[in-house]
Amino acid sequence: MNGASSFALHLLRHGEPEGAGRLIGATDATPTPAGLSACVDQGRDLGAEVLIASDLSRARLAGEAIASETGVPLSIDPRWRELDFGTWDGLAPGDVDGAALARFWDDPDAYAPPEAETWSTLVRRVGSAIGSLAVRPTLVVTHGGAMRAALAVLCGFGQRQTWALDLPYGCVLSLRVWPGDGAGQQPAAQIARLYP
How does DSSP classify residue 17? Predict the structure, then answer.
């Protein structure tokens, strides 16, 4: 893209957490031992020079384990957190009014749960984190919602389009990123690989 320098950005979704299947956003669920091990296996050989993790335990603990394995220092950045589901956070989907949940999935800005973060707020937050990345091979241990927000920022995907990719626990989404120029040009990316 215009010959500008690019860098590899690997987004690793945390491994399976305790209580998987619930709306776990800001809830600080811990990873299962198998989930933690899966993340270390995925993050070990990506060649990252920069390692960042969300501050939530399910991502942070995986980041710490990868740092220990690779020797790459870990930075914690809460901007890579999952969407906060507000009063629904930590609930099983069956414990939420079905019609309200359907409206939320259809339009998470217009029908956000009570006291929740909106989709557009998540996109702005993740966009800010992306804007501060160094032009170096980077691994971010994060969450499914933040990964979808990164696709919105870097690839121009609409909210519905971000759901076209299955992002299971422990998957890696690798992107080739061309950073913005700081003078109005936004960062852009191509999807290089998605693997479980």
Answer: B
Nearest to 83 by CA among 60, 109, 61, 63: 109
- Fold of the CATH domain 7-195: Rossmann fold (3.40.50)
**Per-domain residue ranges for the chain?**
7-195
Rounded to whole angstroms, the Cα distance separating 196 from 187 reads 26
Residues of the chain with pLDDT under 70: 1-4, 182, 184
Helices (H) and strands (E) in the chain, counts: 6, 6
CA distance 193 to 47: 15
User: How is residue 74 written in tokens?
Assistant: 């870990």
DSSP 31: B
- Whole-number mean pLDDT of the chain? 95
Nearest to 16 by CA among 2, 1, 37: 37
